[in-house]
């Protein structure tokens, strides 16, 4: 299982444990990855994603999955989410027209 956020690409970081005697040993900082089903209001369907908890807060701040994807640049998103973003944009364009 890849420990990487699907949307923000946040992944594992490495560093040192430092003891009181200043001994250094390598350690890993793991992101808080959660499997979540997010609802697209425009499409009326749910999408399963593995996202970081910090990304979930950002999604809520931007007004849901639709708002997050529409504000994101296509170059930063994986292919399947680029296709979802385009479907959302087309659906919103049809509703306004």
Automatic annotation (TrEMBL):
Keywords on record: Ribonucleoprotein, Ribosomal protein
Source taxon at top rank: Bacteria
Signal is among the record's keywords: no
InterPro entries: Ribosomal_bL28 (IPR026569), Ribosomal_bL28/bL31-like_sf (IPR034704), Ribosomal_bL28_bact-type (IPR001383), Ribosomal_bL28_sf (IPR037147)
GO cellular component, one term: ribosome
NCBIfam families cross-referenced by the UniProt entry: L28 (TIGR00009)
Family, as annotated: Belongs to the bacterial ribosomal protein bL28 family.
Name of the protein described by the UniProt record: Large ribosomal subunit protein bL28
Species: Benzoatithermus flavus
Highest classification ranks of the organism: Bacteria, Pseudomonadati, Pseudomonadota, Alphaproteobacteria, Geminicoccales
């Amino acid at each position: 299982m890849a420990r990487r956020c699907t949307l923000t690409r946040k992944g594992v970081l490495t560093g040192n444990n430092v003891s009181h005697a200043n001994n250094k040993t390598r350690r890993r900082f793991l992101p808080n990855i959660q499997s979540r089903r997010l609802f697209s209001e425009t499409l009326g369907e749910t999408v399963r994603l593995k996202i970081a908890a910090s990304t979930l807060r950002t999604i809520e701040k931007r007004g849901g999955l639709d708002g997050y994807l529409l504000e994101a640049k296509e170059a930063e998103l994986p292919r399947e989410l680029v296709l979802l973003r385009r479907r959302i944009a087309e659906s919103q364009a049809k509703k306004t027209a």
